[in-house]
Amino acid sequence: MGDEPLPHAHEPNDELDTLLLRAADGDRDAFAGVYDALAQPVTGLACRILRDSGQAQEVTQDVMIEVWRTADRFRPDLGSAKAWVLTLAHRRAVDRVRSVQASKDREVRAGMLSPDRDFDQVAETVEGLDERRRVHRCLAALARLQRVPLVLAYYQGMTCAEVARSLSTPEGTVKSRMRKGLDQLRACLEAGS
Amino acid sequence: MTSPADPHLDAAAYVLHALPPAEEAAFENHLAGCEACRGDVAGFRRTVTLLASAETAPVPEQLRASVMAQVSRTPQDRARRTSPPRGRFLGRYGLRLALAASVVAAAALGAVAVRQHSEAEDARARAVQAQEQARTAGEAFADVLTAPDATVHTEELTDGTSAAVVVSRQQARAVFTARDLPALPGDKVYELWYAAEAGGLRPAGLLDSTGDRASRVLEGPLGDAVAVGITVEPAGGSDQPTTEPLGIIPIGA
Ligand SMILES: [Zn+2]
Hints:
- The complex is a heterodimer.
- Chain A is mainly α.
- Helices cover about 75% and strands about 0% of the residues of chain A.
- Chain A has helices spanning about 15-25, 30-50, 55-70, 80-100, 105-110, 115-125, 130-140, 145-155, 160-165, 170-190.
- In chain A, helix 5 (about 105-110) crosses helix 9 (about 160-165) and helix 8 crosses helix 10 (about 170-190).
- By secondary structure, chain B is α+β, with helices and mostly antiparallel strands.
- Chain B has a domain at about 90-250.
- Chain B has helices at about 10-15, 20-35, 35-55, 60-70, 90, 100-115, 120-145, and strands at about 150-155, 160-170, 175-180, 190-195, 200-205, 215, 225-235, 245-250.
- In chain B, strands 1-2-3-6 form a four-stranded antiparallel β-sheet, covered by helices on one side.
- In chain B, strand 4 and strand 5 (about 200-205) form a beta hairpin.
- In chain B, helix 2 packs antiparallel against helix 6 (about 100-115) and helix 6 runs antiparallel to helix 7 (about 120-145).
- The longest helix of chain B has 26 residues, at about 120-145.
- The chains are: A mainly alpha, B alpha+beta.
- Chains A and B meet through helix 2, helix 3, helix 4, helix 7 and helix 8 of A and helix 1, helix 3, helix 4, helix 5 and helix 7 of B.
- The structure holds zinc ion.
């Protein structure tokens, strides 16, 4: 195993990748560039998961400090700087929602909030940006069976077991629907690009 | 806690951060050795990044100032860049390899305990505490695992279970881990040994075999050890092995 490129290695030399690599070498101006490019998406994602802008901003602050501290771990050959930072952000937001809201609460909420309705509300608020519209169009195009587990896990921070319980579906089935959902989402997003 | 299900199916759940800690660690072990899943993870991650990018929210200007102020007094972790380049996946995944699982299992147990008494404030405090404990316990592992010179040695034990030793000569320490060791009766215990070239065996600590993965930092200095052994001994351990080793794992000179 070794150094052959991954099948989906992204375009090298993305401007943001370069900034993050420079930040890893201690360049604070470069880090400020990373912050400016990603603070809004990080906050948006955290806000979507935590549903509280104050908490989302705290997550943003934590994530950004973590980015600065651990920038050395970023490996451009494995994915973009944006993917790396948003992965950290999702992890933090999910950890936070899990520690703040007891599992039961989230499941009850998930049961009351139909994921579809929840999703539709988001879709309605989507403005302008083509990329966002494309993502929401592709989410909407997924079959409900695939979409719901994906939305519950990604946007509500539920584990497979929690998703399985709240949908009364076996965990293995939930995992394979997540897989299928992401595959279809990828196909849709790539077709539309 | 680990499911018998095919680990190849976990890549999507992993990228969604939907695996519980023990399963996540198990999947990362699997990932270190599975090219197909690494490809899946990279692909799913790109898709999920597009999902994430579809969200955006305004950020108050003072947050930027506050982050930049904090950055100016926060030192950066330099562990990787100063290390000599090693296998790429050792760098990325190997660090959390095998042994992370035991630490993570501790965290998971903490989380379960927390859930059972779930007064919100109380729960939060306990969760933080459990994380803190797991983190401290993990530091000794992490030190060895993240050592620039860390090497991994795996071997099958006589009962078919697989064991691994991670060695850092610089730190003069090693970590042992084995998966699914059979549970022993209460009057018996697993004991680890350092073996020197000349054949001498030095006790290197007892292994708590409860749980699906048993791991520990070996006791005593690594010294001139060329192998690590494991035997079953009477409770409390022995000064010299009293049974045939279940396995001897060569760890190089
Ligand atoms: Zn695999």
